[in-house]
Backbone:
């Protein structure tokens, strides 16, 4: 099993460089599939756009539609105001050449961008829209029919309603996962089953449902249990109007494999679930949102409104220079 | 040396060193595996081009760690960019899937969040855009990368530490 110990002179890398250096060797010697494999592992879309500008070879490779099948524009950590995310996203969508199957947009989504997604990605399987205050029900209802292959929809803390849910439910027969998460608050006390009823009515094939912070009551929950018989997992955390004492609770336990209850921990939610106790008045759209739930308290929190990015002053400093 | 002990395969690196490795390790090298399968009789020594003994050392380290379920402990941090590139080329030549994924991830991590100028400098890549193309890039990207460095001269200054 053990190899023969190599002769000591052969192991120093300077020796090997002398042997292999016949002319200048640089990273462009790597075959295209190796470079593609590297680019595919880049975490952030902005890095992808940086390698785009390094040289002609890398530019060509970084435009490969394969790299844009999944476009993740979520803000992990501190948002970077030097990037025009909407433009980057737009361009990433163009590069996908219709092959995009998964897109995650946080905060900068607008109706226009959504239309662009719809026009470019008829095979979209997963759509996530988080903290996109610039999105309207109208736009979602208009584009729903352009996503016939949609399997998962995630709408988290946006200004959208049951109308969107109904449109998606009706136009997307393959939908298996629905997440519709709202801002969490107890006061004012509001009850509403609109969303629950829309889901129950239009999404019979649903397997996974997440409704954190929803205002539904037991009526809404019952409708879901009846309307979505194939449901395997149901996340009702922070649904303060649901009372699971008695038969309803029992039915949930029996029907649903993976149940998360209103008071269960929310550490693993990548969005804000802390309750605004109402002491700041009724204006919840201040919505100070800490996108990364796991960040510590020292993080500044950034208010997200849909015009934030276009209005912000961009600094000239490149934030990525320190290494 | 002779493959009468059929559990060991002899591999000869470009710098002339012979490594006797377990068949199971040789199996993770699809290139080597193909050579073995294509050979009619027992093959005594398989030459592996572009692979040096220091690469084999690392390959064997990785193999031992993965067999022990500790592949996450494998690190290429101590390699500089050129060494990492050469190692990646060797592993690519040998067609070793898992290790290839590890190394491409390592390169991706080194690229992450770095500026254009930094990437060029650190990876030794020349900017081969023509002045016209450059101007076009600048124009196109100006509003996507407000303040980003497109000009290498600016980068080099910024990177003086």
Residues:
């Amino acid at each position: 099993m053990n190899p023969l110990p190599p002769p000591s002179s052969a192991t120093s890398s300077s020796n090997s460089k002398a042997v292999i250096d016949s002319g200048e060797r640089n990273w462009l010697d790597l075959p295209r599939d190796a470079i593609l494999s590297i680019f595919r592992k880049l975490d952030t879309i902005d890095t992808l756009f940086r390698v785009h500008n390094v040289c002609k070879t890398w530019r060509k490779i970084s435009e490969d539609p394969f790299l844009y099948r999944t476009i993740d524009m979520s803000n992990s950590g501190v948002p970077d105001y030097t990037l025009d995310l909407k433009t980057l996203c737009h361009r990433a969508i163009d590069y996908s050449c219709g092959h995009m199957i998964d897109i995650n947009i946080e905060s900068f989504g607008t109706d226009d961008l959504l239309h662009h997604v719809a026009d470019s990605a008829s095979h979209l399987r997963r759509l996530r829209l988080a903290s996109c205050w610039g999105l309207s029900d109208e736009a979602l209802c208009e584009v729903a029919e352009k996503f016939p292959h949609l399997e998962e929809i995630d709408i988290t803390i946006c200004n959208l309603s049951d109308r969107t849910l109904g449109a998606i439910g009706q136009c997307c027969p393959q939908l298996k996962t629905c997440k519709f998460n709202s801002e969490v608050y107890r006061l004012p006390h509001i009850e509403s089953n609109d969303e629950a009823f829309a889901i129950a009515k239009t999404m019979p094939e649903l397997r996974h449902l997440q409704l954190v912070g929803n205002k539904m009551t037991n009526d809404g929950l019952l409708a879901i249990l009846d309307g979505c018989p194939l449901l395997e997992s149901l996340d009702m955390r922070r649904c303060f109007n649901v009372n699971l004492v008695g038969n309803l609770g029992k039915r949930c336990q029996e029907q649903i494999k993976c149940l998360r209850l209103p008071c269960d921990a929310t550490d693993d939610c990548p969005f804000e679930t802390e309750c605004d106790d109402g002491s700041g008045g009724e204006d919840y759209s201040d919505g100070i949102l800490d996108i990364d739930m796991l960040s510590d308290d020292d993080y500044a929190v950034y208010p997200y409104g849909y015009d934030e990015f276009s209005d912000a002053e961009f600094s000239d400093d490149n934030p990525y220079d320190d290494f | 040396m002779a493959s009468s002990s059929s559990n060991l395969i002899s591999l000869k690196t470009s710098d002339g060193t012979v490594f006797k490795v377990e068949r199971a390790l040789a199996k993770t090298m699809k290139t080597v595996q193909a050579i073995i399968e294509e050979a009619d009789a027992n093959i005594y020594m398989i030459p592996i081009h572009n692979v040096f003994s220091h690469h084999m050392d690392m390959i064997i380290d990785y193999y031992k760690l993965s067999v022990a379920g500790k592949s996450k402990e494998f690190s290429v941090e101590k390699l500089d960019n050129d060494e990492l590139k050469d190692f990646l080329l060797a592993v690519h030549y040998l067609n070793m899937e898992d290790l290839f994924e590890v190394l491409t991830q390592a390169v991706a991590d080194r690229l992450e969040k770095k500026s254009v100028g930094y990437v060029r400098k650190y990876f030794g890549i020349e900017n081969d855009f023509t002045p016209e193309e450059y101007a076009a890039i600048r124009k196109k990207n100006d509003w996507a990368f407000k303040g980003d460095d497109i000009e290498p001269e600016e980068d080099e200054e910024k990177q003086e530490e």
About this structure: The mean pLDDT of chain A is 79. The two ends of chain A are 41 Å apart (CA to CA). The first strand of chain A starts at residue 70 and ends at 73.
